[in-house]
Amino acid sequence: MTEARADGASPGRGSSESLGQVSRDGARTGRHAPGTPCWVSLMAHGLTATQEFYGALFGWEFRPGPEQLGPYVRALLDGHEVAGIGQLPPDRHLPIAWTPYLASDDVDATAEAVRHCGGTVGVGPIDAGEAGRMAIASDPAGAVFGIWQAAGHRGQAVAGSPGTPVWNELLTRETASVATFYRTVFGFAEDPVVSADFDYLTLRVAGRPVASVHGAGQALPRDRGPHWMTYFEVADVDEAVDRVVELGGHVVKPARDGTHGRTATVADPEGAVFTVVRSHPAE
């Protein structure tokens, strides 16, 4: 999501619609359609400290999850699962980043499609206990994402309220080549912004906006390269930014007002970058 969106949907509305059947309290009751961002996960070095940061920022509580890749917890908001945090092995010096997982009915077939279309599968496919089956991959430009085939764990269980992921946006150099990759692998439909100086696509599943792709060109951060950005809803962006700093994080892009809400991009104490947003109500 950027300040201009192709479809007029707020990040909160787009994401909650993509969750399938949603009850009045925002809880998801159906199954994620293939291609839909269905989960976000962070691998950090200090699991306890990271839980303390996000617990204080978003009001999350935690319970243990599958540990196929090491110690791992699921974050809960009002009893609903909203995200995962895992611990990297001490000898792994990987970028600390939030990673979206895209739903799949067959993660092995999707992983093979990723390879066939020029992407890379870095982890898996592997079973995550009784929760499901997963893989971690990167697109041809290098942006990392997960693939999730649900079993006992269907993914994010609530969206729209403060403390929940509400949108995912791929920041890349240009949209054309990577859009072909995601369309072929996941079957996305695309709504481009027709503009000579703005390279932007909204990705749709079954007619619903589920994610976006922003071709940032030379404005793409050189220290990060192409990457997925997760947006978390908050009640007050400015208060959330102040809280991030109080908790040891820092500001990447200060709070600003856009067409669909107020946003700020921040980083946690280990450097994982994410965006906080106060979405305008859906019209």
From TrEMBL:
InterPro entries: Anthracycline_SecMetBiosynth, Glyas_Bleomycin-R_OHBP_Dase, Glyoxalase_6, VOC_core. This is SgaA-like protein. PANTHER family: CONSERVED PROTEIN, GLYOXALASE-RELATED. Gene3D superfamilies: 2,3-Dihydroxybiphenyl 1,2-Dioxygenase, domain 1. SUPFAM superfamilies: Glyoxalase/Bleomycin resistance protein/Dihydroxybiphenyl dioxygenase. Residues 36-150, 164-279 form the VOC domain. It comes from the Bacteria. Residues 1-31 are annotated as: Disordered.
